[in-house]
Amino acid sequence: MTEVIFNGSGTLEERILGGLDAEQREVASNLKGPMCVLAGAGTGKTRAITHRIAYGVHSGVYSPQRLLAVTFTSRAAAEMRSRLRDLAVGNVQARTFHAAALRQLQFFWPQAIGGVLPNLLDHKANMIAEAARRLRLSTDRASIRDLAAEIEWAKVSMLTPANYLENAQGRGTPGGFDLTAVSRVFQSYEDVKTDRNVIDFEDVLLITVGILQEDPKVAATVREQYRHFVVDEYQDVSPLQQRLLELWLGGRDELCVVGDASQTIYSFTGASPKHLLGFKAQYPEATVVKLVRDYRSTPQVVKLANDLLGSRRSGGPAADAAWAKPLQLVAQRDGGPEPRFMECPDDEAEAAVVAGRIKELIDAGVKPSEIAVLFRTNGQSEAYEQALASAGIGYQLRGGERFFARKEVRDAILQLRAATRAVAEDSTKEPLGQLVRDIVASLGYTDAAPHSGGALRERWESLAALVSLADELALSRGAGFSLVEFVNELQERSVAQFAPTVQGVTLASLHAAKGLEWDAVFLVGLSEGLMPISFADTPGSVDEERRLLYVGITRAREHLSLSWSTARTPGGRANRKPSRFLDGLRPDSVLGANARSRALPRRKVAAPASCRVCGTMLATGAERKVGRCSQCPPTYEEQTFEALRQWRKEEALGNDVPAYVVFTDATLTAIAEARPASLEELAKLAGVGPSKLEKYGEAVLTVLAESEPSS
Fold first, then answer.
1. Which of 37, 194, 531, 589 is exposed most, by the fewest CB atoms within 10 A?
2. Residue 303: is it exposed, middle or buried by C-beta count within 10 angstroms (0-12/13-18/19+)?
3. In angstroms, how far is CA 665 from the centroid of its own chain?
4. DSSP assignment, residue 4?
5. Residue 123: how many CB atoms within 10 A of its CB?
6. Rounded CA gap, 56 and 646, in Å?
7. Which helix (H) or strand (E) holds 396?
């Protein structure tokens, strides 16, 4: 969402905080002291914290030069800077942990250590291969990749080659090597770096931490520079990043953290939600705000996401902190289509079915750029690339060639930069969007997309994305936004890899989809062994796989499809089973022992198709839930229905949620009319899902028993 807040009248508070909901406003208006924002998917966390920064700066509480906003990806940092510019506070620093630490390291290295800062190593592969050769160990690309990941985990966990072995027990055999061999490779890798006078990305954080710990003057300078901190995605901080943050703070508490333990999906990199969940213990006076109003997804998508987390065996990472239990999202959008569940005979058929459904959506008006196919492993993408190509549907592979590395994009930026001088000398004031269109026309851009596909279409899509970005920025930044500023924006986005939207279906892994959203999402390959992945063999790792699926579900705004195949290849043996995470969620399924510590009654998903009173066909979802058409009178006892309504009201008030989140009127009516006498009977009613059955089942049966009419 783009917004311009300084073009209207009203007080400063009205202009900055007026468009926020009550919880977002609480985040944005409480500017001092520690704050923890527990923000569910789609609840507007970035909006809340950027408005908090803007309100703090414009009210004079914050000095923009003395506030540091930290996030985890260059793209997220660039997006935050862009939003802050829209809020007229473009001089606030928003950086990743690594970028902020590198900036400090470059400044303080000469005085703290002396000499020239070593070169920064872009990739570890060559150095790790050299380290293994020195030890006469045989490696291949896969083992080198695994060794690199293990060394990164060790370093962000603040382990050294000397103490790695004693702290890495239970981590398996990275790269196929035992942990003793890994520790030797780790030491050899550090030796190779020293010989080559290079440092890696983890060293940037480690050395910065070392300087701040050992040099009081440097630490004092940094703490004088930065007085207030905002940390986004706080559930993903590693021990090393947390230590750096503590050194920046130096015992102060002007810190706002934002996160969601239910979206912790990077523990394999050293990320841990314990710092988020322990925030209240560390800062007892902290203000805690929960953002649960989901503005992204329809109630149908939100319900599926809530049910997925509600059906897990334990509370997951939030189980030990009552105030930080998994957030129950409350949908704010109008209703949409029910999520689709599709079982296919093999991977090829699954890809073909998905491609066909995507074509239907595009024909119905959904933009290709608003559709995504998400999978657990990158190796699953090939089938969908082929299926979409066969259907004549353009796509982009997230994690493939980077947008700003494309030749047509580089050529366009060169031409735009060259045009800035001529435009400056021209007295005419042509709108930025049209100006960009005119400049990139020589590279093949036209207002209408080419009918052909292939390279010509891909080239046009790239140029069209630049034109659309120019239109968007001209609108959000105002009429004075110039071509020079646009070129500078492109340069900054290029560094951060903050690419504009390209028209084409997105193919991406679930991990790569974090932080993104689409109108339509296809979650594919949801079979045991892929979701959860086969090597997730502990309760903690399985729970992280569930959270990964949760992230995938919450990427969808309206259309959501979940699919799996029973065999890998056409004609192959159908020995695959759908993911255990779908038990109790997909039609005609129940929660298995893997999903719950105890089995719950089988749930009947299909509601009656005809009225049980007069026999006419039921037309609406509400009628099917009740099993009775709207023309026939209700058959429940009034006192029973009123008792249920009173119970629902008290339950909703106690949990601070709207009444319909507990049960809708239609479901409550169905319960009152059916008067189930057991959990098994209650489970058969439409609208009583597994999580609600566990949460409210016994209480509902008690209400029904106590409201039994007297004979």
1. 194
2. buried
3. 32
4. -
5. 9
6. 43
7. strand 395-397
Q: What is the pLDDT of residues 163-181, one digit of tens each?
A: 999 898 878 788 888 899 9
Tokens of 280: 């209240």
Tokens of 570: 């056409």
Question: Quick check: bond before 532 cis, omega within 30?
Answer: yes
CA proximity to 48, closest of 95, 98, 87 = 87
DSSP code for 524: -
Of 673, 666, 667, 658, whose CA–CA distance to 693 is shortest? 667
Report the share of the chain in percent with pLDDT over 70. 85
CA distance linking residue 670 with residue 674, whole number of Å: 6
**CA distances in angstroms from 204 to 105, 156, 236, 267, listed in the order given:** 7, 11, 18, 21
How far apart are the C-alpha atoms of 167 and 185, rounded to whole Å? 16
Beta bridge partners of 565: 344
* Rounded CA separation 153/147 (Å): 10
Helices (H), strands (E): how many in the chain?
28, 16
What is the pLDDT at residue 501?
65
d(CA 61, CA 418): 42
Return the half-sphere exposure (C-beta side, CA atoms, 13 A cut-off) of residue 409.
Answer: 21
Report which listed range, 62-76, 544-558, 622-636, is most confident: 544-558
Q: How far apart are CA 372 and CA 519, in angstroms?
A: 8
Q: How open is the CA angle 666-672-677, to the nearest 5 degrees?
A: 125
Torsion of CA 611, 617, 621, 622, to 10 degrees: -30
Give the pLDDT confidence of 104-157 residue by residue, as tens digits: 999 999 988 888 899 999 889 899 999 999 999 988 887 888 899 999 999 999
Query: Amino acid letter at 134?
Result: R
CB 296 within 8 A of CB 557: yes
Closest by CA to 500, choosing from 380, 381, 413, 386, is: 413
How far apart, in whole angstroms, are the C-alpha atoms of residue 204 and residue 432?
Answer: 40
Relative to beta strand 228-231, strand 67-71 is parallel
| Dist CA 621 CA 618 (whole Å) | 8
Q: Which of 636, 639, 663, 635 has its CA nearest to residue 649?
A: 663
Element (H, E) at 71: strand 67-71
Give me the residue label for tokens 């659309």.
468
Residues 290, 23 contacting (CB under 8 angstroms): yes
pLDDT of residue 526: 95
Q: Which residue has the tokens 């049966």?
A: 701
What is the C-alpha to C-alpha distance for residues 147 and 132, in angstroms, rounded to an integer?
10
- The answer to whether the beta carbons of residues 433 and 471 sit under 8 Å apart is yes
- Tell me how far apart the alpha carbons of residues 547 and 309 are, in angstroms, rounded to a whole number: 8
CB 576 within 8 A of CB 565: yes
Give me the DSSP letters along 45-66. HHHHHHHHHHHHHHTTSS-GGG
DSSP summary character for residue 515? T
- CA neighbor of 641 nearest in space, from 604, 670, 599, 661: 670
C-alpha atoms less than 13 angstroms from C-alpha of 702 in its C-beta half-sphere = 6
Q: Which of 258, 141, 253, 274 is nearest to 540 (CA)?
A: 274
Contact present, 666 and 648 (Cβ < 8 Å): no
C-beta atoms surrounding 643 within 10 Å: 16
